[in-house]
Amino acid sequence: MKKAFLVVALSCVVIAAGFAQEEDQEFTMAVQANPLGFLFGSYAGNFQYQVAPHHGVMGEIGFAARSSDLGGIETSQSRFNIGAHYRYHFNPTMDSWFLGPFAKFVSLNGESTVTTTNFLTGVEEEDSSSYSANTFVLGGNIGRRWIFTQGLSIVGRVGYGASSVSLDVDGDGDVLTDDDIEVLERAFGIALGFDFELSIGWAF
User: Fold this and answer.
1) What are 8-35's pLDDT values in tens digits?
2) Which residues have a Cβ under 8 Å from the Cβ of 57 and sit 6 or more positions away?
3) Domains of the chain
4) What is the dihedral of CA 85, 89, 92, 94, to 10 degrees?
5) What residues does 21 pair with on adjacent strands?
6) For the whole model, what pTM was predicted?
7) Three-class secondary structure assignment of 191-202
8) DSSP assignment of 60-89
């Protein structure tokens, strides 16, 4: 009976020591990726380095490409973004709520072709257009990183920023006016001002 008690007690001490060692482990770096983006042709990842107990810096990069063909309308779009973040962690660890400013650059390029049939001649006619939009965003966000057993890391964040958009449009149809371009730039700026993350990764 005493031997059994001693074995159980010793096992509890070893397990507790293992958990204590894991809890005391300090993580200073982490890599993350968006697991759902792969299903939609979007690839994004980031790397964070903890420069001090409450302070971290993060860099991210992403790429996405989509195309569709629906009812004689063919569209394609590509997106590239790169960003830099500062994170102040409420706790002196990466496993914590955080907030901070961010800056990012987003480049969008798209093309569309509309195919119609002339009822009088039966000849197919195509109207094509393309656009490119370069956007710089400066804003702030808030989020949370959870670090689980052996460094499994999950991050969620949300934020918004002011944006500056430069839009160029070319096409076979009617030429857009300066007012039309301005309206589109505002729409792009509002949409691209949002900042969010839901990712899974590894801290070490």
Assistant:
1) 333 433 333 344 334 447 899 999 999 8
2) 48, 49, 51, 84, 85, 86, 87
3) 27-203 (2.40.160)
4) -60
5) none
6) 0.77
7) HHCEEEEEEEEE
8) EEEEEEEEEEETTEEEEEEEEEEEEEEEEE
